[in-house]
Design brief:
The longest helix has 16 residues, at 141-156. Strands 1-2-5-4-3 form a 5-stranded mixed sheet. The protein has a two-stranded antiparallel ribbon with strand order 6-7. A two-stranded antiparallel ribbon has the order 8-9. The protein is globular, with a radius of gyration of 15 Å. It has helices spanning 4-13, 22-28, 46-56, 76-81, 106-109, 128-138, 141-156; strands at residues 18-21, 37-42, 62-63, 84-89, 92-97, 99-100, 104-105, 113-118, 121-126. The chain is an alpha+beta fold and 160 residues long.
Length: 160
Amino acid sequence: MTNFRRLLEVLADGGVEFILIGGVAAAAYGAVRNTLDLDVVYRRTSANLDRLAAALAPLVPYPRGAPPGLPFVWDARTIQNGLNFTLATSLGDLDLLGEITAGGPYEQLIGKTVELEVFGRTYRCIELSELIRVKRAVGRPKDFEAIAELEKLLELAPRK
């Protein structure tokens, strides 16, 4: 079971710049679907990669689904040489994304975010309309199942 609250706190307390997307972001808007992992888009600056590596190191991140014993070093160089990581950690599953389909990297998404309270703290989350758009673009069956609920939440949301 993923401890979403603690994973978010570890990232935030480590000074990591990230955007909350996926099921936890959907839940912040009122969606009731369960999710098994935390999905975030992280900023790929050198300083942020250092903070990200340091923040997650105590959680012993390891590629989810990889065979045990596979040589894997979690550090800023590994993150720099990769892009998207599906990780198992001591606090649960984390999808660490350098960019997302139809949304791009952090810098392209940041203007399409809002601050929302999640587990009693404020985090930068992808806007609901943008979450719907990227889920539609990804096109997985589970995303299409979620879109109807998200569209209803968007319809019911107060207009600004």
